[in-house]
Amino acid sequence: MSPCSNRLSTALLLTALLLTGNGCGGPTQVVANEECFSAVDALWTAVTSKRSDLVEQTAKELNRLHSTGSLSDDGHVELTEIVQLARKKEWEPAAKTLKVFMLGQRKAK
Prior knowledge:
Radius of gyration: 16 Å
Largest sheet: none
Oligomer: single chain
Number of domains: 1
Order of helices and strands: HHHHH
Structural class: mainly alpha
Number of helices: 5
């Protein structure tokens, strides 16, 4: 393998690891809790429609779910980072990060 293709492979691997969230485990799972999953879906709608008012409404709901113990600390951190991107009007990075989060959700078997 040439040094150039070796660097490219390394860069692609690092990018894949960064996009999958928390290392090998992937994003925090929220799919088992219907309220949390609905809040994530609402965040998707807010971000993709570029609606700051909906972002704020959803952020309040995520905070409520976290304070009641329905949303884990890890999940709250991950979703708050997405909310922060949306608050800065960084809609595309917010949508991409949230999409990775959502695609990483798995129903328990």
